[in-house]
Amino acid sequence: MGKILEIKDLRVSYHTYAGEVQSVRGISFQVEEGETIAIVGESGCGKSVTAKTVMGLISTPPGEIKSGSQVLYFGENILEQSEKEWERYRGAKCSMIFQDALTSLNPTMNIGKQIMENILNHAKVTKEEARRQAVEMLELVKIPDPALCLKKYPHELSGGMRQRVMIAIALSGRPKILIADEPTTALDVTIQAQIIDLMKDIQKKLGTTIILITHDLGVVAGIADKVVVMYSGKIMEKGDLNQIFYGHRHPYTWALLNAAPSLELENKQQLVSIEGTPPDLIDPPVGCPFAARCRYCMNICTEAEPPEYVMSAEGCRGQEERGSREEHRTACWLYHPDSRYQDIEFDKEAGI
Amino acid sequence: MKTEKVILEVKNLKKYFRVDSRRVLKAVDDVSFQIYEGETLGIVGESGCGKTTCGRTCIGVYDKTDGQVLYRGQDVHQMNKVQKKEFTKQVQMIFQDPYSSLDPRKKVHDIIAEGMRIHHLVDSGAQEVEEVQKLLLQVGLNAEHASRYVHEFSGGQRQRIGIARALAVNPEFLLCDEPISALDVSVQAQIVNLLVRLQKERGLTSMFIAHDLSMVKHISDRVGVMYLGNMVELAASRELYRNPLHPYTQALLSAIPIPNPEIEKNRKQIHLAGEIPSPMNPPKGCHFCNRCSRAKDRCRMEAPVLREVEPQHYVACHLQ
After folding, report:
1. Where are the domains of chain A?
2. How far is CA A185 from the centre of its chain?
3. Complex ipTM above 0.85?
4. Does B279 fall in a domain?
5. In a domain? residue B1
6. Structural domain includes residue B320
7. Which regions of A159-287 does DSSP assign to beta strands (E)?
């Protein structure tokens, strides 16, 4: 599997009346072809902005992609593309589905037209052929009676069906990457399970790379291969699924995983709550952004930004080496080679 | 359950909404249950199942279509003015959306104090200030927050203000309608811990409506599952999650994503075909029959009633 997407030191800001909101503050990660990578974080952590950058949807102004940022698609920096190239890229190489299918679909056009529009834009085919492909796409996303669905308008469909239509439209240009921005947040659990299954199924059939953006760690556990945990515009921890769920080393990841009640938990037991709120990104704190809410905060945390440490099973292995394979990395001072807390076990009552 | 005293009794409650001259939406269709003093009853179900309507009708926000709701033996929908006023002091509500449920033109102090003024719970302005400050501290805010407006607060803080407002009149019953679904995971835990703590401290009885099953299990003593206006299963929360008897409850529980990759991988999910039918036109017989893999002819003909199949475990299903 090759690298399909590589994001290097991405920084995105929005200029508002209140000042410059630094939504994404220097993040780097890579995506391998055919895998599912989940970007997890709370609202305002910059996960959607990252996705929009990859799709070229940051409007400037008010947005600004800082110089030095790179998004490499098969080694090519797409941030330097012309608008024409973007048009060929969107839909055919990379596609996106959104949280709210009702507002993302065009209410004045029937489903058939909306799918065919995308097909006709990207391939030189006749209308008949486009219609045939549209039916095929609807079959792929398991819509019963696709021919009838072509004639329907978005408001005539249920939430789950709309999300299926969205996926069909997104996939109709046969993109290599599918970005799913909170695709199941607006859906009920039983429908959510259907959509997640559909996405897994499609990946198996088409080999699409999926970038899943979500705050629901349960969804992540069921579908992702790799996980990136973001907090206030920075990556706190990244690694493969098992590393993040069973071997997480960042206090934020730990807190996030333990904040949701699990079904095994005793009733009314105290949940791990992260006191306070995320920092204001107009004036982000010096040092680690999570320091103010962290039980394991040390003096250094509020003074200098933690570098990413490569984690290994035995503990930390020193600072990042250039060009190394992507591994389990944690941006936390606890894992500085001189730190006394390298083998720290997180606990509800504990702290430093 | 601390005591076995029934505080709220709902008998065959129906709430229909007239959509137009021909169609009627049966949001709550013949639901009966009881809430005991000091307990938390959770109500879960997917959107459109009638859980919010049920909650609101129970505390008299909506008029009922048929049936009866008794609060401490008194019919909620047939109270006179004096009784109604006393009832609104006893029963308070926390809303889902912390943005639209607080008046943006009022200061936090006035939002919280309004109830106290209406019910003459304070004698002087100084006492009022003191009470408001006490409440703010109780819900984890600062005393100086009282002089601010709502827009200056984050979602979690607003929900705390909403809780302080509800507690201001010293109620004994709280209706929490999806109080945490608009919040981030880390903030959800703060609010849930707060609610659990306050409930213990004040001995509150509450009805907790949500669609997040793991959260409902966490906070409730008993849980009722609703589907298309009917209560399909009602049991103690541990019992319900350990031994779900209704096919819908089983499917619902198996659909919850669990943040544990090992479990996720090896788990067999029960897949529900299709989606919730429109409540305007529910299927005949058992409302769940068209999505149920075990539906028999009888299920399509005759609606099952909620009955006790195991001690304190009620199910509405012909198969049990």
Report:
1. 104-174
2. 13
3. no
4. yes
5. no
6. no
7. 177-181, 209-214, 226-231, 234-240
Give me the DSSP letters along B71-98: ETTEEGGG--HHHHHHHHHHEEEE-S-T
Q: Which two tokens stand for residue B222?
A: 């008993």
CB contact under 8 A, A260 and B219: no
CA–CA min distance B27, chain A (Å): 18
Q: The domain that contains B127 carries what CATH number?
A: 3.40.50.300
Interface residue of A36, A188, A294 to substitute, partner B, most B CBs within 10 Å: A188
Query: Six-digit token pair at B62?
Result: 């909506």
Which whole number is the average pLDDT over B44-70? 90
Strands (E), chain A: 3-16, 19-32, 36-40, 63-65, 70-73, 76-77, 94-97, 177-181, 209-214, 226-231, 234-240, 308-312, 315-319, 329-331
Nearest Cα residue to A332 out of A241, A280, A254: A254
Peptide linkage before A107 cis (omega within 30 of 0): no
Look at B46 and A188 and tell me if their CB atoms are within 8 Å. Answer: yes
Look at chain B and report how many structural domains it folds into: 1
How many percent of chain A have pLDDT more than 70? 93
Judged by CB atoms closer than 8 Å, whether chains meet at A259 and B186 is answered as yes
Numbers of helices and strands, H then E, in chain B: 11, 12
Task: Give the per-residue pLDDT at A121.
Answer: 85
Q: Is the pLDDT of residue A319 over 80?
A: no
Q: How far apart are the first and last CA of chain B?
A: 26
**Number of CB pairs, chain A paired with chain B, less than 8 A apart:** 128
Token pair belonging to B263: 């479990």
Domain of residue B141, residue span: 6-315
Chain B, nearest residue to A253 by Cα: B186
What is the structure's pLDDT at A313? 54
Burial of B106 (0-12, 13-18, 19+ CB in 10 A): middle
Q: Give the Cα separation of A263 and B71 in Å (integer).
A: 32
Can you tell me the distance from the alpha carbon of A9 to that of A69, in angstroms, rounded to the nearest whole number? 5
Q: What is residue B127's predicted lDDT score, i.e. its pLDDT?
A: 92
Residue B279, pLDDT above cutoff 90:
no
Calpha distance A112→A126 (Å, rounded)? 14
- Residue B46 located in a structural domain: yes
Cα distance between residue B88 and residue A113, in whole Å: 53
The three-class DSSP label of residue B26 is strand
- Give pairs for B272-277: CB < 8 Å, separation 24+: B272/A190, B272/A194, B275/A158, B275/A159, B275/A160, B275/A161, B275/A191, B276/A188, B276/B46, B276/B47, B276/B48, B276/B49, B276/B227, B276/B228, B277/B228
Q: Taking CB atoms and an 8 Å cutoff, what residues of chain A touch B192?
A: 261, 271
Kindly list the residues from chain A whose CB atom is less than 8 angstroms away from the CB atom of residue B187: 42, 273-274, 277
Question: How much is the pTM?
Answer: 0.83
Average per-residue pLDDT in chain A?
86
